[in-house]
Every structure is written in structure tokens, then in C-alpha cells.
Amino acid sequence: MRIVLLGAPGSGKGTQADKLSAKYRIPHVSTGDQLREALASGTPLGLQAKAAMDAGQLVSDEIVLGIIRERLRAADARNGAILDGFPRNLAQAQVLDDMLRALGQPLDCAVLLDVDFDVLLQRLAGRRTCENCGATYNIYTNPPRLDDQCDRCGAPLHHRPDDNEVTISNRLRVYELQTKPLFAFYRNQGKLETVNGTGEVDDIFRRLVAVLDPIAKGLRKPKPPVPPARPVRSAVKATAAKPAKPVPKKPVVKPVKSKPKPAGKPAHAKARPAKDAKRPAKKSRTHR
Ligand SMILES: [Zn+2]
Question: 28 and which of 17, 38, 197, 231 could share a cystine (Cβ 3.0–4.6 Å)?
Fold first, then answer.
């Protein structure tokens, strides 16, 4: 099972990715971790990444993609992987798709861990870390027993200077802007699943498992791009929009008693495939 885990900073996707990795025995491929590892081990791609960073530039998509490709070729990723941290925008999603197709490892599902803006803000602004032992806390959701003091080692807790609300909301807004088109991209492929990312870690995990289990067991292929509940309504709308086409074919074959009743339903059913193909364009015209 190959999945992409999507979620804003503070959505908790790193934590959930680790839990999913343990449950389904597929590696959690975090772009950040892979990059750090490549830098540390001095692989050719790692050296390229280092050169870019030393020059004060962002590491290019090409390099990041190369690092992911190498990771996915490893033996432990043969049965799947959980991608975390990539893609972050539409262009990246497209190149990732191409790469996975070339590897013969297409994506099964993109899971969005959905958390409200205010909750994200609180989670991120409440973060405290112990610089001594690395323990992390959140003054709202997971406070230390004593204010600003580490439970484990007693060292003073640290509040990162870029963890203030203004910086955080800017970060979240940038994230939102860049990732929105991604959701549509995966939705159009019938691969997007949205899971409520609010609440206890274990509850969120259960929701994820409920969505992913059928995919892991091969019981479910990606959904068809059009959600099953809507075609009925849209078919009606589409027929209404079309200038009434008098049913052209007379059922000549069967001499039925009720010949003059051109039932609407068969016509709908027959026309549906074509309409489905047209739907996305139509939708964007009428709704957006
Ligand atoms: Zn500590």
C-alpha cells in the first residue's frame, strides 16, 4: 500500500505516519528525515542538496524526488510506503505521479488529515521542547507537570521564537495556498480520503485505519473520480440543460404494448458515461 499523508504543520501526521508504519509494516518516508540522512551519509544526492543549502537555496524538487526514489527502491519499501512531507504543491504531485508510475508503484491513496485552522494554531503555538533531553510538550494539550520545566529531566522548557501566532498563521496560510490544488488533483483521481485529525491520537489513528484497512487488504481500489451519490442529481441537471432531444430511436425490435412511452430513465443511463467525462469542466464553469 503506497499512500501520501497530507496535513498542515501541526496536524500530527508525523505521529500518525509512525503508527501506520508499525501497523502495516511499510516504511514511513519523511522527506525531512530522508534529506537529513542523505546529507549525513554524503550520497551523491546528499552532496547536491548540501551544495544548494550552503548556497542559501532551497533543495530542488529534482533532488528531493531523487532521494525519495532511492528510498522507495529499497527492499523494505517493496510492499509500500507512507510518504510524508512530499508533495507540497501541484507540480510536485505531478512529478511524483510520473516517478511512481515509472517505478511501477502507483499511489493507492492520498489521505488528508484535516484539522481546523484554530486548532492548528493552538497546537503549534503551545509547543514547548526540552533542549536537554528532547521531550516535547504542549501547554494546551500535553502540559508539563510544572510550568516551563521538563518532567523527565527538570531542565527549563524552550519556546521556539518562530512559534508565535503571527509567524504560525502565516506559515499555515502559505501551506493552505500551496496544498489546496493538491486535494483537487487527488480527488480527481478518486484517491483522496479525508480523515478528521482532531481529538485523541488513538482515535485519529482508528479513523485512519478504518479508511486504510480495505486498501491494505486489496479490497478496495481507488474510488471512481465522481462520488457515487452525486451523478443522479447532475444527470438530471445535465439533461435539463440540454435542449430536449426527442428520443430518436424507436425500439423496433420488440413489439411491445406500451410503445409510445419514452421512459426517461433508460435514456439517462445510456447517456451517463459521456456526461461523467464532461462533468469536471462543467462543474468548474458553474461553481467556481
Ligand atoms: Zn528534558
Answer: 17
